């Protein structure tokens, strides 16, 4: 049986990785230049992390040293420091015991050393006592970790490319104070190149704004949608190369999934799964694939739904129908929303939570096409509205 040409689990690297040559080149150029600083930002599910990983692979192939510290699950600055320590210890070479000893001396704290049970590589982390101190003390420790890495690289004649993924967590954990503290640390480093990456675009834009901590510190790379024609060819070629006969099914897949690379790949993957036995796909196959994804994700989406406030549920129903003006009087009346102010507040909450995306005054859309389909299928009937889950696309 042919292998599915549309991987969606984990990080996608070559040969499945496609396009993004300019973005990968910008990231590689930053990793190559000690002291350079680049901030990459854009919506989720666009392929940023995959592009970062591919750039690391290219940098390593040229003899460089680079690593990625993922901040997405951190709950304190101690966690951030540990992410940096673990990633950099693995990246800086075979003589890791000397490196850990040197880092411990420079930081001024004892580091705990262990081995990754999966790949056997060494890991270094702060002792438990250092991770239970005050936020200010942990911020200082993170700064000392980064300063010590820069000093170690200078002493050993190497440069380190350090990617900080989900960089906006700096704000969540430390607010503006944490941002200014980090700027004060990294702006002087000449032996580490920094690539910061973030997916909460509204927060990243605020962190970069005039008067904000990172104003003009970073070069900026906006990571937007992939070229739709390239994406269309990639999907069609993947289906055809996997032995599926079709007539440009990519146009329907992109129409339903939208512009996020992972959403497109997810729908293409399911379409391929349904089509490969018969060896052909048509619009009905794409429709069925979309419905099956909704069914696969139904329980998590239902759990999210019950957590929304009443007005938020009404706003989501309204947006699911494709209304162009949430604040219009007939929309408010149709969905039982008390006022335009109530609708605006609920919509703002949903945007902050990453459920909706605002496209203009009073105009919103779902972040996930599959969540939109679920709301149409399971929640709109509560308002007496019955639409196909694929609305507004007519296959």
Task: Provide an overview of this structure.
By secondary structure, the protein is an alpha/beta fold. The chain has three domains: about 20-220, P-loop containing nucleotide triphosphate hydrolases (Rossmann fold); about 230-295, Helicase, Ruva Protein, domain 3 (Orthogonal Bundle), CATH 1.10.8; about 300-385, Arc Repressor Mutant, subunit A. About 50% of the residues lie in helices and about 10% in strands. It is built from 16 helices and nine strands. The protein has helices at about 20-30, 50-60, 75-90, 95-105, 135-155, 170-185, 200-210, 230-240, 250-255, 260-275, 285-295, 300-305, 310-320, 330-335, 340-350, 370-380; strands spanning about 35-40, 65-70, 110-115, 120-125, 160-165, 190-200, 220, 355-360, 365. The strands form three sheets. It has a five-stranded parallel beta sheet with strand order 2-5-6-1-7. It has a two-stranded antiparallel sheet with strand order 3-4. Helix 6 (about 170-185) links the parallel strand 5 (about 160-165) and strand 6. Helix 10 crosses helix 11. The protein is globular and about 70 Å long. The two termini are about 30 Å apart.
